[in-house]
Amino acid sequence: MIDKGVESAAAAVADIGDGASVMIGGFGTAGMPDQLIDALILRGVGNLTIINNNAGNGEAGVAALIKAGRVRKIICSFPRQADSHHFDAAYREGRIELELVPQGNLAARIHAAGAGLGAIFTPTGFGTLLAEGKETREIDGRQHVLEYPIHADFALVKADKGDRWGNLVYRKAARNFGPIMAMAARTTIAQVSEIVPLGALDPEAVVTPGIFVQRVVRLDSITLAATT
Amino acid sequence: MNLFTRDQIAERVARDIPDGAYVNLGIGLPTRVANYLPADREVFLQSENGLLGMGPAPARGEEDWDLINAGKQAVTLLEGGCYFHHADSFAMMRGGHLDICVLGAFQVSVRGDLANWHTGDPDAIPAVGGAMDLAIGARRTFVMMDLFTRDGACKLVRTCSYPLTGLACVSRIYTDHGVFDITPQGAVAFDLCEGLTIDHLGAITGLDIVDGQPFHS
């Protein structure tokens, strides 16, 4: 019997090692898998490359990981926010490397990794600082920038419900990067608020097919507000 | 001269958003446009974090922090609205499905180049978010801004000095002085605030402003 269910957050992240690249779902606090991140902090590994839209909000989630000094590099679109003080401090002290990516290019590069594409040509960013030094090409009269996929060793995502085959449905705008990160990582770990029996998820409404998910762990969580 | 207030600018933008349009309102000032969309028009508001059919803020105490807008404020979803992931959200922009986006700006050039993400200050922590995708992706990119900075520098310029967000992407600029269309003939001004003339506008901006008033009366 295939059962991707895992007993605890600690067991779910037990093989994430030093220097791993880890995609973390979430847009601000919505969809941020805080409990999996807490377990990762407890594991004590560092030197991580984190891929997330932001660079931490407040004290929990990615912010806590940065505060604990575990992040060597972050790839994100919008680090600077009212409550990104832990990133701001680490960045100003030169303790963290930042790769800034336009949000749509971030999504497209993650999706490209999951879809097995070698690269993409995107019109976003052409002629800007964020395309400096990159190959460009005119296609159908429009200028494009060559961007490479973003792969990761692990993805930590938060969904609403999952089953033992790893099928997932999300909750409202907490979906955001979850489905494409699940595709792009070698090992995807989903924290869900409920594990339901096979057949309980409407097959027409499954958002992430179980093939993209390796572990499912049930954890209670509520989403807190970001400071705006 | 009687400059338009920010609410008047928002109301002016809202007038140009037709029934049935798919629209993204950027964070900050542009979100105010939502307050002035006429009740007799159905306009689909898109939020980059995966909402179409975004509704107003919920009542205090009714916030659901899994249901937020791009500015991470609590919002609601209208009946008929839907959720989607980030690759779909940005496909809506880049793929030319979004009719209009409304953005703020540090500077816009008379060729329609937009600078709105980074001052270039070496001490600033850069953040770009979805601005570059919106600017070049939407069919029409509107900018909403004061024409001058607090220090008196004109934000409509020949060439942007701040780092660019997108090239030749802005089609119309709504300001406290009036509205500008970016055209091959240059910036065409109309709907000027009370007491302002095209000649005076040319003098204070230092630009060759084309008089568009005869076509917009």
Helix-strand layout with pairing:
The complex is a heterodimer of chains A (228) and B (217).
Chain A: H1 9-12, E1 21-24, H2 34-43, E2 48-51, H3 62-67, E3 71-76, H4 85-92, E4 97-100, H5 103-115, E5 120-122, E6 136-139, E7 142-147, E8 152-158, E9 161-162, E10 168-169, H6 178-184, E11 185-192, E12 194-195, E13 215-218
Helix pairs in contact in A: 5-6
Chain B: H1 6-15, E1 22-25, E2 44-47, E3 51-55, E4 76-83, H2 86-94, E5 100-103, E6 107-109, E7 114-115, H3 131-137, E8 140-144, E9 156-157, E10 170-174, E11 179-183, E12 186-190, H4 198-205, E13 210-211
Parallel strand pairs in B: 1-2, 1-5, 5-8, 6-9, 8-10, 12-13
Antiparallel strand pairs in B: 2-3, 3-4, 6-7, 10-11, 11-12
Would you give an account of this structure?
The complex is a heterodimer of chains A (228) and B (217). Chain A is α/β, with parallel strands linked by helices and 228 residues long. Chain A has a domain at 19-100 and 151-218: 3-Layer(aba) Sandwich (Glutaconate Coenzyme A-transferase), CATH 3.40.1080.10. Chain A is 21% helix and 25% strand. Chain A has 6 helices and 13 strands. Chain A has helices at residues 9-12, 34-43, 62-67, 85-92, 103-115, 178-184, and strands at residues 21-24, 48-51, 71-76, 97-100, 120-122, 136-139, 142-147, 152-158, 161-162, 168-169, 185-192, 194-195, 215-218. In chain A, the strands form 3 sheets. Chain A has a 7-stranded parallel β-sheet with strand order 4-3-2-1-8-11-13, sandwiched between helices. In chain A, strands 5-7-6 form a 3-stranded antiparallel β-sheet. In chain A, helix 3 links the parallel strand 2 (48-51) and strand 3 (71-76). In chain A, helix 5 packs across helix 6 (178-184). The longest helix of chain A is centred in the middle third of the chain and has 13 residues, at 103-115. Chain B is an alpha/beta fold. Chain B is built from 4 helices and 13 strands. Chain B has helices spanning 6-15, 86-94, 131-137, 198-205; strands at residues 22-25, 44-47, 51-55, 76-83, 100-103, 107-109, 114-115, 140-144, 156-157, 170-174, 179-183, 186-190, 210-211. In chain B, the strands form 2 sheets. A 10-stranded mixed β-sheet of chain B has the order 4-3-2-1-5-8-10-11-12-13. Chain B has a 3-stranded mixed β-sheet with strand order 7-6-9, with no helix packed on it. In chain B, strand 2 and strand 3 form a beta hairpin. The mean pLDDT of chain B is 96. Chains A and B meet through helix 4, helix 5 and helix 6 of A and helix 2 and helix 3 of B.
